[in-house]
Structure of SENP2 protease:
Amino acid sequence: PLFQAMESEISAAFASGEPEDILSRAFKLTVTREDICTLQPLCWLNDRIMNFYMGLLVERSKKEGYPAVYAFNTFFYSKLSSTSHKGVKKWTKGVDIFKHDVILVPVHLRIHWTLLVVDLREKTIKYFDSLGQKGDHICKTILKYLEEESKEKRNIELTASEWTLHSMGTEEIPQQSNGSDCGVFVCKFADFISRDKPIIFTPEHMPYFRRKMVWEIIHQQLL
């Protein structure tokens, strides 16, 4: 019965009401029905859905037994790459990102979502792309950002040679089987990584993940 109730709630979120109806509010974000509808099959996820989901992951990471997670929003990387550290210096005002275990950087490449993950415990920067493209330059951009951020905020020099940068290969992570699931892949990569779990899902899980995310965003709670 619970599952049926959840299913009917998810269907209702897609079906009834006006596009501008507000379905969820948290993390200084407002999610409308129009935003939620990007979670329908074969739709591209928008910034609001991506940022809200990252907010849910960060919230969960405050619980005991989870690595401490910091997530940048989806506009961070494009701003950093088009300016420099100076252009995003204020984004971490009052926050020491180095006190976290994992930093998530969702990256929007015009019409494709990818994810960059900094593991401060292991000193690794990994790039996750469900279309299998390499992101070595993105890893380098983020390492340079971390060096400047560390110097500026903590007066500590990072030793670049101690860091490992790696673009995940197609044999290491699942790959999307259509042109629209990249955003869901990014959210689920981030979900598994922020629990220190191996990434074991497949493209077949995507329709289920999309519906699950609708419920989670509306209820502001990860299942």
Helices lie at 2-15, 33-36, 47-60, 76-82, 85-88, 136-154, 182-193, 206-219.
